[in-house]
Design a protein that fits this description.
The protein has a 5-stranded mixed beta sheet. Strands 5-6 form a two-stranded antiparallel sheet. The radius of gyration is 18 Å and the shape is globular. By secondary structure, it is an alpha/beta fold.
Length: 279
């Protein structure tokens, strides 16, 4: 029920922006994007139950999160079938996003049906750092965990998440990075906040220049929220209209026929600095 309601809302809220884009640009310049937030992670579960960060680096999905991803696969398939492809599946390198991609569209994630689409991993899609779960896994270790994505993951830097300048000497593997975050939360979060706007702009350029015009983006609550704020999108809250789209675990929202090129040309819109802190 929630997914259907979110789909109808997303189609309506994007309509006016899409119509303006259509009048200004050729069809080839328009993109259709399905945004998907990852399933429930161990961080989400701990925060819901205790309100405290469990300090799990790059926290994986819970069993519930894995089930959410599989169930959302039908929602995603329904949206895709209404809009002919080809489609590009793009994921954040954080494990909860990669594992959601595996559950929600395994045919593409595992290259079981090459004609169905292709997969890429974009570090710009990583979550804004608000917890230890946002400290990533080194690319060399990800290659071992997801061997079928060797090409995509080997292209990442060994450390592809934000690390404060004074802590860049820490090894990418092992527990030192997680311990450093636990002792220096503000340092990590401030450093990441400082480059968030630039990262959003880099992400817009990648979306605008992707050769595919249809993309499924698997990412995170705050990242999607800040990105869609930058695009001027809104959603209706309980008492007021809220800037950006703030998705629930494994919620899918469709943005149809949108010009990222126009968004870049028009420049940043006023955005809120608050985050959901829900990763």
């Amino acid at each position: 029920r929630d997914h259907s309601r979110a789909h109808r809302f997303a189609m309506n809220s994007a309509m006016d922006i899409s119509e303006m884009a259509k009048s200004a640009l050729p069809a080839a310049a328009l993109k259709t994007v399905i945004f998907v937030r990852h399933g429930e992670s161990e961080y989400n579960k701990a925060m819901r139950e205790t309100g405290k960060d469990p300090l799990i680096r790059d926290a994986p999905l819970t069993g519930k999160g894995q089930s959410q991803a599989q169930e959302a696969g039908a929602v995603l398939q329904n949206l895709r079938e209404k809009i002919p492809g080809p489609w590009l599946l793009v994921s954040s390198p954080l494990r909860r996003a990669l594992d959601t991609a595996a559950g929600i569209w395994p045919e593409v994630f595992f290259s079981r049906v090459p004609s169905a689409g292709s997969v890429e991993v974009w570090p710009e899609l990583r979550e804004k750092i608000t917890g230890c779960d946002d400290i990533g896994t080194a690319s060399s270790e990800l290659c071992l965990q997801y061997p079928h994505l060797q090409k995509q993951l080997a292209a990442l830097k060994q450390v592809w998440w934000t690390v404060p300048d004074k802590l860049r000497h820490l090894p990418a593997t092992g527990e030192d990075m997680a311990r450093a975050y636990a002792a220096n939360e503000d340092l990590f979060e401030v450093a990441d906040e400082e480059n968030l706007k630039e990262r959003i702009e880099q992400l817009l350029k990648k979306l605008a220049t992707a050769k595919e015009s249809h993309l499924v983006v698997i990412a995170h609550c705050d990242l999607i929220g800040h990105l869609t704020q930058r695009l001027g999108l809104t959603e209706q809250g309980k008492n007021k209209t809220r800037k950006g789209w703030w998705l629930r675990n494994c919620e899918c929202r469709l943005l149809a026929d949108f010009s990222f090129q126009n968004a870049i040309s028009e420049g940043p819109v006023e955005v809120d600095s608050d985050s959901s802190s829900s990763s």
